[in-house]
Structure formats: structure tokens, C-alpha cells
Amino acid sequence: MKEWTREERYRVLQSSDEIKDLHERIGKSVYRQTYHVQPVTGLSSDPNGFALHKGVWHLCYQWCPWGAVHGLKYWYHVTSEDLIHWRNEGVGLAPDCEYDNRGTHSGSAISVGGDLYFFYTGNHRDEDWTRTPYTCAAVLGADGKPHKLDKPLFGPRDTHSEHQRDPKIVWVESKKKYFIFIGAQTRDLKGCVLVYESAELLSGWTFAGQLKVPGYESFGGMWECPYIVNISGKDVLIFSPQYTKLPGRGESTNHNVYFLGTMDYDTLTFTPDGPYRYLDYGFDFYAAQGAANVGDPDKAILISWIGLPDNHYPTEEEDWEGTMTLPRELRVKGGRLVQTPISGIETLRGPELPANGDLPAACELAVEAPEGDFDLNLFVKEDGTGGLWLHYDAAKRVCTLDRTGMDKRFNTQVFEVLDMPIETPLKTLRIFIDHCSTEFFVNDGEATFTTRSYPTAREFHYTVSDGAKVQIWTMKPSVKDDFVV
Question: Less Cβ around it within 10 Å: N or C end of the chain?
């Protein structure tokens, strides 16, 4: 695997010609996705700037153009009318000013009064490589490109460490104010969220305080990508705790969790109804971001990076890595979040195929499980061995996912086997496979499990327990992989 120097990782993209050959080369990869957003070249990671504006969904992702490496970060911009068909729009934000000279890092967006506003972290480093994070803004112009403000909205708090990033903008009607939530870390290396407030979007921002979450004052070492939303009258707090190991998550130190509870904007206190839950139980799910301006009080729309910081994946050898999940609709039912694939995804189905044990590279499976213990093994060889194994223990109500049987193994030091507990007996699975990713939705979204998967040519088969009903459809392409920079 290539060893990148700092100069290589933080090289500024001067012209699209510098990466045109790379785009053509990675386009030949058997692992390029057909209905998931993926990087035009290089690396994609956190989703950013996700909002509905004048009938168009805007989404950006953190992008390093040169290869599968975390270096100089841009925002790459994609758009959609239906959250299913996506087109490449080119660079959204580039690290081209003093305040973001070493990267335009994660953030959010909101549509207000006919304009679309973006909020991001400007990653500044001086000659000694000392970091100063700034909270910056941009406005979508008539040319369809975000245009930056000349100066940041505000700088970092000296009371906290340099880890202050990922601004999430929220309008709170009862307060007639905007709030920005910043993922942060205290000086004694504890994860937290900083809160700023203003009556105006692009001026007047003042520090309101640190978010209080009773019982979680020492939970993790950094809370990335905070997101707060109200669904059906219940507040939901989602974030990604880093630098900590959590029960049942192997050796991973990067996670995505959520609370249901009540947010008090007077005291800046989020009071959870109960303990945190994992947003997704899979190996590769991180930095989830919710869309702004959804317009439905009973649901939110979420998308996530299929990947984890500090992990490595087989397509790094091809100089590209990363993809987004399918957008998900979030609802609150029975005291928990329920996540379902975006409405209308069925329109991508091709003709139904015979359930004969063959597995297309891009497909959807609908499985009805019989009562009792159950096994489904995806990506097995023709003789039925190996594969990505899902085993359901009916007595424990736990699904165990095991990917040790696949030809291409990766991140073995972190985890290869994980449990997904469910609250009701296993009845249904919806599974979306797309060349290098697999997403499981259990019991109409009661639980989800997302993983990278890189089947070889001999692994496009599956086996399933007797008594199960399986339907399978190929999926039509919905993401244009055009070279637009």
C-alpha cells in the first residue's frame, strides 16, 4: 500500500486535467457503485451540506482527489430531485483561503428565504502545523456553486482542545434563533458539543455554552458530527463518539450513536429518555448527517459514510475509496428510531430474478424468515462455502454478522464479527447490495447493519435456511459517474 508524504496528501488541485486519467482508471474497477453516491476520484468520507432547496436535494461529501488517503479535504457537490438519482456537480468548496488552507472540513446546510447557506469548518494550519479550526459559511450562487464569506463566523474556544468542527445549523422556532452545534473535545480529552446562537444566519454569533447530556459527561474522547432533530414531538440527538471502545464493538474506537429525549434550549440540556443506542450495528457506518428542510414533522432523512476513520479497504490499491449509504427515512416508533430505505427506491428494480442461489453484483433482496433460528449466507462460492454469514439466534433475538469467510478480508484487527440485537422476532430482511457495499434493514427498519463487501468473481452466490422466502431483483443504475470537477 502506498505511503503518502504530507506534501502529496496536501497538494492543491490546480486543474481537473491532473485527475482525469485517475477517473478513467478507477471507472474500470469492478467495485464501482451503480446506485450509491461515490467519489469522482480519490477518497470520499463524511456527508456534508445536506438540504432540500427549491425542489433539489443538495449533498456534498468530504473529498481528497488524489487517492484513498485522508489529506487536503474539499467538498464535492452532488444533487438530486428524488434522493435516488444523483448527478455530479463538481467541487462545492475548495481550501483556497487563509482560514481553510488545510481543508474545508465537515458541516451542514439550510435553505432560508430563497437562499441555500452552507456552514463548514475551515481547517487552518500554520507553518508549525498547529491547527486552528474556524466556523465558516458560504451561500449558493446563481451559478449553482457555493460562494464563501470573506471571513469566518467565529473562531475556536480556547477553553477546549483544537478538536472543534462539524457545525450543524438548526432553526428553533420557539426561540426565534439559529443554533450551531459544534463537535468538540474538552481540555481533559472528553467528548462534548459546543453551542452558538444568533438571530441572523451570517452575523451576530455568540457562544451560548456547552451542551449538557446528564450521565454522559465522560463519554468518548470527541463527539463528531452532532445532529439534533425533532421527529413527531420527540427530540433526537445523533453523534459519532471517537477515541473510545464501546460494548460489543470489537476494537473499534469510532462509532455512531443516538439518544431519544428532550432538548431544553434555555439550559442547553438534552435529557435522554434512556441509554444511547447504536444508529447502525454494522462494521462500516459513520458520520451520519440529517437533511435540512425535509418539511415533514414525522420523519427525518439521514445519510452516512460507509466507512470508518483509520480503517483501510481493498480499493485503496486502486486509488479510490468511500461511498455513501442509501438515504434513509427516520421515524420514532416504540421509543426508538426506525430506519427505512428512501421511498421510491423500488423504482430501480429490474425484473424479478429466480431465487436460485445466484447473486447479482447490484441487487435488492427481500427475505421472509421462518420461525426459529435462521441462516443467510451471501457471497458464497458455488459449493456453498465462505461468504458473509448472517445467523439469527431466536432464543436471544440476536443476529450475528460474520465476514471472515470472504476472500477479501480487511480491518481484521478491528472486527470481523458483530452482533445486531433486535427487539421482536426476525421476520423480514431488505438487503441492498451494490458492488462494494451491503445494507441490511431488519423487520421494516427496527435495526440496520451496514458493511463494505468486496466479493471476488467466484463469490456471487447465496444460501438460505429452508422455509425462507426470497425475492431478488437487479438494481438499475441511478448515479451518474461523470467526470465533473
Answer: N
Cell of 118: 452552507
In angstroms, the Cα distances linking 382 to 359, 411, 435 are 11, 26, 18
Does one domain contain both 161 and 307? yes
Same domain, 120 and 246: yes
Amino acid occupying residue 185: Q
Residue with cell 450475528: 400
Closest among 439, 49, 48, 443 to 280, alpha carbons compared: 439
pLDDT tens profile 101-110: 999 999 999 9
The single residue listed with the C-alpha cell 451496514 is 450
Within this chain, do residues 364 and 314 fall inside the same structural domain, yes or no? no
Q: Given the residues 46, 100, 166, 319, select the one marked as catalytic.
A: 46
Fill in the amino acid letter for 3: E
The string of DSSP letters for 198-213 reads ESSSSS--EEEEEPB-
Contact 436, 452 (CB under 8 A): yes
Calculated CA dihedral for residues 16, 18, 24, 30, nearest 10 degrees: -110
Strands (E), 141-233: 146-148, 160-172, 177-186, 191-198, 206-210, 222-231
* Catalytic annotation present for 266: no
Does residue 233 form part of some domain?
Answer: yes
**Nearest CA-CA partner of 157 in 197, 195, 108:** 195
> What's the order of all strands across the beta sheet hosting 115-125?
104-112, 115-125, 131-140, 146-148
**pLDDT tens digits, residue range 117-167?**
999 999 999 999 999 999 999 999 999 999 999 999 999 999 999 999 999
State pTM to two decimals: 0.98
Last residue of a domain, one of 287, 310, 333: 333
pLDDT digits (tens, 9 = 90+) for 280-295: 999 999 999 999 999 9
Residue 481 domain flag: no
For the chain, the domain total comes to: 2
List the domain range (segments joined by +) for residue 406.
345-475
Q: Give the bridge partners for 259, in sequence order.
A: 237
CATH number for the domain harbouring residue 279: 2.115.10.20
CA 36 – CA 300 distance, rounded (Å):
19
Distance CA 2, CA 109 (A): 35
Answer with the one of 264, 299, 333 that is the final residue of a domain.
333
d(C-alpha 449, C-alpha 358), whole Å: 22
